[in-house]
Automatic annotation (TrEMBL):
Coiled coil: none annotated. Residues 1-21 form the signal peptide. This is Putative ABC transport system substrate-binding protein. Pfam families: ABC_sub_bind. The keyword NAD does not apply. It comes from the Bacteria. Keywords: Signal.
Length: 338
């Protein structure tokens, strides 16, 4: 009788111990483990327009999420929407994301981020390809936004681009700059360009557009009075890179770009950022938010690493000699010359 009672006590103790171990194991799981195992988070991606730079940033964002264990269809649900360059579309998509109660929104380009900001002050939002989030009025400060936003900026140092321009085209006196006059990020860049150019004794001729359809006429009439064209990180301009490259090559006007994409389509050179890496950096910020941080706790950042690209075919066509030190450190591409 005593032996049987002892056996029962041993069995009970074993059972209770196992249960406690199981409970202990479950309480030690992180919120991230819980998210990955069953809590499907809904992420809305609003991209302003389709072009190489923004497409790369979008891909970088999704790839980083996957690298960190957040995969579409498994533990997150990503809805991709493109506004096709129309602000009204961006506003509609932003409202749809709010109405469907997304857990996080990723906005690509300044107008897209502004559309989301106008639609919600609550849903955590990560942005990328926004030159100056404070001037765009989606953040109060770079270190802590004070809003439901954080992200990565594509701001690049204009003084370095002017230096490159002077090295490659030393006789240049007038720089043309083509940009969308209604894009806040572009206006900021043009103002910085004018200030930097003035210090170097260079004149700046502005070529303003509001749509891709205006590029042909507005740029064609300006090419006769400029020595070189500068293309900032502007979404409308990026959508017209092929046309801009063609027009400039026909007029024998070199292009210096703030991003690499123009160099592949007839531009001479660029010193700027890698938008894929910019998107990946934004993806890291999204992971921090998915794992419990608030956007105000995640600093807005830029990329310190610059990418330097030269189109050797364009240089040859325009009879431009690339200095040896620049050629040795640049990524070289070809094409874009017809």
């Amino acid at each position: 009788m005593v032996g049987k009672r002892k056996l029962i006590l041993i069995v009970c103790a074993t059972f209770i111990g196992s249960a406690l171990i199981g409970c202990s194991g479950s309480t030690q799981k992180s919120s991230n483990d819980s998210l990955k195992s069953g809590d499907m988070k809904k992420i809305g991606v609003l991209q302003l327009i389709q072009h190489d730079a923004l497409d790369s940033a979008n891909k970088g964002f999704v790839d980083m999420l996957k690298e960190k264990g957040y995969e579409n269809g498994k533990n997150i649900e990503i809805e991709q929407q493109n506004a096709q360059g129309e602000m009204t579309n961006a506003q509609t998509i932003a409202k749809q994301f709010v109405d469907s109660k997304k857990d996080l929104i990723f906005s690509i380009a300044t107008p897209a981020a502004q559309a989301v900001y106008n639609a919600t002050k609550d849903i955590p939002t990560v942005f990328t390809a926004v030159t100056d989030p404070v001037s765009a009025e989606i953040a109060k400060d770079w270190k802590s936004s004070g809003t439901n936003f954080t992200g990565t900026s594509d701001k690049v140092p204009v003084d370095k681009q002017i230096k490159l321009l002077k090295q490659l085209i030393p006789n240049a006196k007038t720089i043309g700059v083509i940009y969308n006059t209604s894009e806040t990020n572009s206006v900021i860049q043009v103002d910085e360009l004018k200030a930097a150019a003035e210090k170097e004794g260079l004149a700046v001729k502005e070529v303003g557009v509001t749509t891709v359809n205006e590029i042909n006429q507005n740029l064609a009439s300006a090419l006769k009075s400029i020595d070189v064209l500068y293309t900032p990180t502007d979404n409308t301009v990026a959508s017209g890179h092929s046309l801009i490259g063609k027009l400039c090559l026909e007029a024998n006007v070199p292009i210096i770009g703030a991003e690499e994409a123009i160099v592949n389509k007839g531009g001479l050179a660029s010193i700027g950022i890698d938008y894929y890496k910019l998107g990946k950096e934004a993806g890291l910020k999204a992971v921090e938010i998915l794992e419990g941080k608030k956007p105000t706790d995640v600093e807005i950042t830029t990329l310190s690493e610059m990418s330097f690209t030269i189109n050797t075919d364009v240089a040859k066509k325009l009879n431009i000699t690339i200095p040896a030190d620049i050629e040795a450190n640049a990524k070289k591409v070809t094409g874009g010359v017809q």
